[in-house]
Amino acid sequence: MGMEIKMSFNESFQEFPIIETERLILRELQSEDAEDYFSYFSNKEVTMYWGYDCPKDVKTVASTFVRFSNAFKRKDMIVWGISEKGTDKIIGTCILGNFVRGSMANISYNLSREQWKRGFMLEAIGAIIPFGFNNLGLHRIQALVMPENNASISLLEKCNFKNEGLLRAYSFGTLFTDTLIYSLLVEELN
């Protein structure tokens, strides 16, 4: 885990950054992950607060992965597939994107329903946040969350994100809904 090495924003995009935690490997999604991704992401409970419809089929997922890869090459977004060590099966994703001048990014995430309440997302985000601040040189990481999404709010607060307020009728994927904005600044990283 020792992420003491300081890299620049651009250097971090030369090859996909693989992050290892105690129980997880965060890695680039591959075409062979499409079935696992589709399997958990087609569960309405998983996408309830996502703001987008779930993918139609495994083929759609494969083209989504190509879009993720191209976005990484353009330095627009990093989409980590979350896999449990020993299985290599994708159980969720975590995304850093919407970079603003290399100083700010949005974080979003999703996790297979079967894996909820096991601390996996806390572990994944706990590794991605220092990567964002140390390797990408970000100053601020923010998250948009629907007010009814108590699990996500609890997760963000455990990671020391601060509630900055309510964005009224904000565009959240394909919806317009009230949305909370949370943020964490580099000096608040502990």
Verbal overview:
This protein has a single domain (11-188), classed as 3-Layer(aba) Sandwich (Aminopeptidase), CATH 3.40.630. It has an eight-stranded mixed beta sheet, sandwiched between helices. Helices cover 28% and strands 33% of the residues. With 190 residues, the protein is of the alpha+beta class. Helix 1 (34-41) packs across helix 3.
Question: What are the salient characteristics of this protein?
Answer:
single chain; 190 residues; alpha+beta; 8-stranded mixed sheet; 8 strands; N-acetyltransferase YoaA; N-acetyltransferase; GNAT_dom; Acyl_CoA_acyltransferase
Task: State the major sheet.
Answer: 8 strands, mixed
Percentage of β-strand residues: 25-35%
What is the global morphology? globular
- Give the strand order of the largest sheet, numbering strands 1, 2, ... along the chain: 1-2-3-4-5-6-8-7
Q: Give the total of beta strands.
A: 8
Distance between the termini: 15 Å
Nearest-angstrom radius of gyration? 16 Å
Mean pLDDT: 87
Q: Please estimate the helix content.
A: 25-40%
Write the CATH fold name. Aminopeptidase
Helix and strand sequence: EEHHHEEEHEHEE
Q: Supply the CATH superfamily name.
A: Gcn5-related N-acetyltransferase (GNAT)
Fold blueprint:
Layout: E1 19-20, E2 24-28, H1 34-41, H2 44-47, H3 58-73, E3 77-84, E4 90-100, E5 104-111, H4 120-135, E6 140-145, H5 150-158, E7 162-172, E8 175-185
Parallel strand pairs: 5-6
Antiparallel strand pairs: 1-2, 2-3, 3-4, 4-5, 6-8, 7-8
Helix pairs in contact: 1-3
